[in-house]
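User: Structure please.
Assistant: Input sequence and predicted structure:
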Amino acid sequence: MTFATKITITRMILVPVFAVFSISYGHSVREDSPMELYRWWALATFVTAAASDGIDGWVARRFNQRSELGAYLDPIADKALVFTAIVILSIYEWGGDGWRLPLWFASLVIARDSMILAGIRFIHSTKHPVEIHPHWTGKVCTFSIFAVLGWMMFGPLPLSPSYPCALAAVFIIWSMITYIKQGLDILKRPKARD
């Protein structure tokens, strides 16, 4: 197992750790006695896990540690972290006064990723080779989602979460359209031979 893959697995292990700290903080806010230490530990765990997303890719490229296992686990680790944070931050208030992720934003992120996964599955079922290449809009989308989640965990701040969510939504929709176009282009190519 490569060092890059070990970083990815560490990110997967950090997801439940983040969930425990963030749910604990959400409960403490709900009970009107916020335990700020839980919030800071949740934020530190999230930032560490999010940063490892770039680090494992850099290590894999820089030291020629690309592996099939790493390529398989990396998007799972990413989605696990993002979905866990989105669900928790849309259910629990993080500081009172409605400081939580808007449900429309959580729904949009989940719809985008579900559509991409369904598209890949459909392309695979039509016997076309699945070759979805990362696009810069997808990377900006991921960064903007991470930025929104970090914004939420720092809060409450003077600017409502709706504004950074609206900005991130532009990139979410843009990347979704880009990947749909990639999928349609793949369907126009010859099918793979058995």
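The chain has one domain: 3-188.
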